[in-house]
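Troubleshooting: if your tokenizer reports a length mismatch, compare your output against this known-good record of 190 residues.
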Amino acid sequence: MHPKTALTRISAAFRLVAFPKNVIQDSRLRIYRPTRELLAQIEHLLAANKPSFHHSPLDDVIEVLCQGRRYSWVGIYLTIEENKQQLLVAGGENGLNTIALPQTRSKILVTMKLAGRELGVLAAESDRENAFGSEDRVLLENAAGALARFLAGRGKYLVRKARSALLPQTTCRLTAHTPPPKSNEVSPQR
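Known-good structure output:
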């Protein structure tokens, strides 16, 4: 056997052992997983829904999107009022709760809608130019749909929690109160 042929067979065997055929790897050692596989995992995470005090299933969805594709940052915004959103959860290469990156070269925003009602926006950013193709758009649109169904159903507690965080922290009692008269004013007679 020719040495080049043996080397080619060995390297082909190594690639098959190291990475399944449906997984692609880029130069920065990130693994790109197929859209269907990512969507199935996102649906599974949202269906499992094991909330804890410091962790929500939305954190896991962001982690799956960032690890499965070339996204350097992903954020989930909740619509509070018309044309007003609040960041619900975000994360990226540097971990959860990171802010949007200043070196962003590509950005995609996908509306999370359910029955024609806008619940929020799913945002993804990349440090590469033209990073988002049609497959990414399909992935993010389907992920946004799954998130909308989750936030309107089993994840409604996350929406309530985010909206209650917007309310003023101090509570006041509403009582009929007239300010005390100034020293040179005469108080009204009763």
